[in-house]
Amino acid sequence: MVHIKTDTSIEAMRESGRVVARILARAQEVAAIGVTPRELDEAAREVLRVAGASSPFLNYKPHFAPTPFPAVICVSVNDAVVHGIPSADPLRDGDLVSVDAGALLGGWAGDAAVSFTVGEASPADTELIGAATAALEAGIAAAVVGNRIGDIAHAIGTVCREAGYGILDGYGGHGIGRSMHEDPSVPNEGRPGRGMTLRHGMVLAIEPMLLAGGLDEFRHDPDGWTLRTTDGSRAAHAEHTVAITKDGPRVLTAL
């Protein structure tokens, strides 16, 4: 079931979205050569504490997971695409880092992700991160009243495929509200003019996940959470929580 939010509810979701934005900004400030992903998680916990918010990630256990998720952010490095558990391994010069963060505040969820490079970025990584951002922006631009879910999917997929990148098979965006994951699903590739019609008050987490090697396949780490590219190529993840409104898409997880 798709839950339509009132304008008041969207305003409340904007507050949880601001917390998510601050987590992502803080993660990028803290990230440096020699810093560990666990230290990024500690910084994220402090942002949540100061805001009086909680994490929808911590102890989350979907059907596929062998154990509850042990952190408040996902930190996926290099060939890890998503769901990386923050480790004690120090970040190295040139690492491509994707951070996915969520927050619960006042009973409403926010969810967003960003990818960036620690130290000196390679041209290939810069292009990959740029394509992920462009795909997200294209998806957001298509998130207007009267369009369909397929229009968002087509916009994202077109950017990814034209740049020669793979799209994480079987994963995409989702509705969001009182729960981090709600209907509808928002694929990262699809046909325009297909799927559910977008209405004022729908709120979606739009999140392209790009694989540099051009393949769509992935493998699981032994931890049961981390998804990696099968060819060892790098990956990038970009995400925002977006409200569909009569005045156009409104990004709720922007700073």
From TrEMBL:
> What is the source species?
Streptomyces arboris
Binding annotation for a divalent metal cation 1: 100, 111, 239
- Catalytic activity as recorded in UniProt: Release of N-terminal amino acids, preferentially methionine, from peptides and arylamides
What does the record give as the organism's lineage? Bacteria, Bacillati, Actinomycetota, Actinomycetes, Kitasatosporales
The broad enzyme category this protein falls into is: hydrolase
Report what the protein is called.
Answer: Methionine aminopeptidase
Q: Which InterPro entries match?
A: Creatinase/aminopeptidase-like, Pept_M24, Pept_M24_MAP, Pept_M24A_MAP1
Give the EC number(s) under which this enzyme is classified. 3.4.11.18
Record family assignment = Belongs to the peptidase M24A family. Methionine aminopeptidase type 1 subfamily.
